[in-house]
Amino acid sequence: MTLPNSLRAQPDPQGNFGSFGGRYVAETLMPLILDLDREYRAAKADPAFRAELDALARHYVGRPSPLYYAERLTETIRKGAAPGMGAKVYLKREELNHTGSHKINNCVGQILLARRMGRTRIIAETGAGSHGVATATVCARFGLKCVVYMGAKDVERQQANVFRMKLLGAEVVPVTSGAQTLKDALNEALRDWVANVADTFYLIGTVAGPHPYPEMVRDFQSVIGTEARAQMLEAEGRLPDLLVAAVGGGSNAIGLFHAFLDDPEVAMLGIEAAGHGVHTDKHAASIGGGSPGVLHGNRTYLLQDEDGQISEAHSISAGLDYPGIGPEHAWLHDIGRVRYEGVTDQEAVDAFALLAGVEGIIPALECAHALAAVPARAKAMRADQIILVNLSGRGDKDMATVADAMGTSI
Amino acid sequence: MSRIANAFARARAEGRAALVTFVTGGDPTPEATPAILDALVAGGADLIELGLPFTDPMADGLAIQRANLRALGAGATSAKMFAIARDFRARHPEVPLVLMGYANPMLRRGPEAFAQACAEAGIDGVICVDIPAEQDASLGPALRAERIASVRLATPTTDAARLPAVLEGADGFLYYVSVAGITGQQQAALASIEDAVARLKAATDLPVAVGFGIRTPEQAAAIGRVADGVVVGSAIVDAIAGAAAAGTDPAAAAGNIVAGLAAALSRQEQAA
Fold it and tell me: Which residue of the set B27, B60, B171, B228 is catalytic?
């Protein structure tokens, strides 16, 4: 049931965001998911849990992350804009968090829940490695065994992150089934979970999977938007006109958007990875080039053929290289609250270089997709308007990929 | 009485458990599947589970994962699987056929279209791995409207509080997944299976078939003593893969395995 007066009250108790979401898992996992749901509700209502999470966020993660006015980026964009045009661009600096991305926000929350439930073994899937590193980090912090599933192809292209995870004490299992990327890592993590139900906690890294994961991960990530909303009111005395964030599974985007969903004056733009172009067969734009279906525990937009076979996704950014999207995004798209557009590999690489050059900030390739959509939008907005971009991660991990795309070697 | 109920009743009348055999449709090729299904029947299978291939079989072990990808690589489509089922029904009017697979291929054209296609092809039941009782509304009503049995799975994690929900709307038989895990792995301890089956049979009149991790005639015979049906999948799929790789006849390989299993279950009858 949709509560009529708020867009922030989703999902219903069965995990439905409109016609999306739900709990499409094997019977073996169903009791575990119901158990997780109960424990999560209890933890959410427990002031001690909240206090422990807040303390970790402040002293371990480094929250609050800064809200930064990107003055030179704004000036650069205004040079190509008509007089009086060119919105101010602000960045929410999630790349300054411990481990270098927003992923840690969710990991500290779920690790506290795992401890509360008495689980001793943590499993996770990872694409680019950001979630794997964040998971390995919290497992090291709390002395829990950690197993990270990672597509063999991603292991190859993200070797620095693989080494980081191992250094943090995690076992990294290369997944050689299927396309050997994030979707296959998720399949393998689910297979592990179903075979280790007694001691294992599955720490999902994005706002996908069976209920309550999309809701729970969103709640842990919504600190981004809650902070940004207050910071913007303090800096400008008003709310931003447009939010922009990259969407793979969609955790950084929903983290920014959620606190603003009931502010009708705030427009929102989710940027999907268009790869070589949404009209080609090499992209990861589930909304732009997909259709509704069921995968990995939820109903959402998927890249699939007419028989429901899942298509391979492609993006230069391993973190966006997934053929689905979180169910809340699917719903926000269907009701028209958030607009979703695509940005190609090349546009993302150009934006990556632009931000490095004018602001001295090297963004992750994931959020470089969001940045790529900004100049055209800003030029079409008045100079007194505001765009807020979620800078969800830092780009150190992407050096080799970007160098390769620019035709140079390191 | 339905074909599924008949098959279990006949085995019961013969004093043995029913033999339920699984193969992935289209593996190694869609063209090879009809002969493989015939070999299962000739070998003594009482009920056939035909796997509807999927790119992401997340509840399956390596053997069936590979079978799914082999089938899709060889051009398996939903239309071809329904055609295979329809032709099977024409050749074997009495052998129950259950389609087993994952939600996305089943729901792709809508649950009603899927249920109608099943009915037209003479399919008796459907097992959907990733539609638990809680999500029954996404497929169950459409199946029931076409009188297709919605076969439910119970597992070692299905506790007493949850069992009534699992049984609500269950039809055909109850599939007890004896191991918390994926297909093709180790077998659970016999004592725990016996307890679980007793618990399930106290809660339902449906026949209870036990699967996951049963590979050999000896294992099948042991399970057959405590359950109404024994499900074997990965061992047959492995035999098909081995034959296909060696260039020998996959149907013959599958038939041999099934004949051994069937013989072990019949000896149960003589021993009783």
Answer: B60
Active site (annotated) includes residue B218: no
Domain that holds residue A152: 17-59+103-218
Domains (ranges, CATH) in chain B? 3-271 (3.20.20.70)
In angstroms, what separates the C-alpha of A149 from chain B's closest C-alpha? 14
Residues A144 and A83 grouped into a single domain: no
For the domain that residue A230 is a member of, what is the CATH number? 3.40.50.1100
- Residue indicated by tokens 């733009």: A269
- Taking CB atoms and an 8 Å limit, are A27 and B155 in contact across chains? yes
Three-class SS string for B248-269?
Answer: CCHHHHHHHHHHHHHHHHHHHH
> A103 catalytic, yes or no?
yes
Asked whether residue A32 falls in the same domain as residue A43, the answer is: yes
Looking at the structure, do residues A240 and A213 belong to the same domain, yes or no? no
Tell me the pTM.
0.96
Joined together, the tokens standing for residue B207 give: 């026949």
How many domains, in total, are found in chain A?
A: 2
Phi-psi region of A161 (alpha: psi -120 to 50; beta: other; left: phi over 0): alpha
Shared domain for A180 and A304, answered yes or no, is no
In this structure, what are the phi and psi dihedrals at residue B21, rounded to the nearest 5 degrees?
Answer: -120, 140
In whole angstroms, give the CA distance from residue B151 to residue B171. 5
One digit per residue, the tens of pLDDT, for chain A of length 410 reads: 445 689 999 999 999 999 999 999 999 999 999 999 999 999 999 999 999 999 999 999 999 999 999 999 999 999 999 999 999 999 999 999 999 999 999 999 999 999 999 999 999 999 889 999 999 999 999 999 999 999 998 998 888 899 999 999 999 999 998 888 899 999 999 999 999 999 999 999 999 999 999 999 999 999 999 999 999 999 999 999 999 999 999 999 999 999 999 999 999 999 999 999 999 999 999 999 999 999 999 999 999 999 999 999 999 998 899 999 999 999 999 999 999 999 999 999 999 999 999 999 999 999 999 999 999 999 999 999 999 999 999 999 899 899 999 999 88
Nearest-neighbour CA in chain B from A130: distance (Å): 23
Domain boundary pick from A192, A218, A244: A218
How far is it, in rounded angstroms, from Cα B194 to Cα B19?
17
Using left for φ > 0, alpha for ψ between -120 and 50, and beta otherwise, residue A67 falls in beta
Please tell me what DSSP assigns to residue A311.
P
Asked whether residue A73 falls in the same domain as residue A55, the answer is: no
- Both A164 and A32 in one domain: the answer is yes
φ and ψ at residue A222, rounded to 5 degrees? -70, -5
Q: Taking CB atoms and an 8 Å limit, are A26 and B131 in contact across chains?
A: no
